[in-house]
Design brief:
alpha/beta, 4 helices, disordered N terminus, 143 residues
């Protein structure tokens, strides 16, 4: 039974412009690999209407279903309530607050690309998410 002195899990926010590709993959991998040991959010500075279908397909290939996800708008509150903010090409539109850890992951934008172009981006995001978990000292959940 958790006690009131139990540490809250770290929270991570993934941000890209449309919240339809890279940030959705990052959030999905982190949720998949960390379970409830990390609070995960994703958002976009100019969210699209839907998640990129090629991204949904590429994630399904590795057993992660993001077909029900929807792009969300980036809010200052989402940034304020996150311990780590990972930007993926949103440039200067991401709000910056003191005391937060910011990482900028330069990744190709899968917008308008087919699943063949999404796969290498997916693999790189998974590699970086696994590295982040190691830095945070959080073991990868067993499948």
């Amino acid at each position: 039974m958790p006690t009131s002195s139990a540490a809250l899990p770290p929270s991570v926010l993934f941000v890209c412009v449309h919240n339809a590709g890279r940030s959705q993959m990052g959030a999905a991998f982190l949720t998949h690999l960390a379970g409830d040991r990390v609070e995960v959010r994703s958002a976009g500075s100019a969210p699209a209407d839907t998640v990129n279908p090629a991204v949904v397909e590429a994630m399904a290939e590795v057993g992660i279903d993001i077909s029900a996800e929807t792009p969300k708008v980036l809010t200052a509150e989402a940034v304020r309530s996150s311990d780590v903010v990972i930007t993926m090409g949103c440039g200067d539109t991401c709000p910056v607050f003191p005391g937060k850890r910011y990482l900028d992951w330069q990744l190709d934008d899968p917008a308008g690309q087919g699943v063949d172009a999404v796969r290498p981006v997916r693999e790189e995001i998974e590699r970086r998410v696994r590295g982040l978990l190691a830095e945070l000292g959080i073991p990868v959940a067993s499948a």
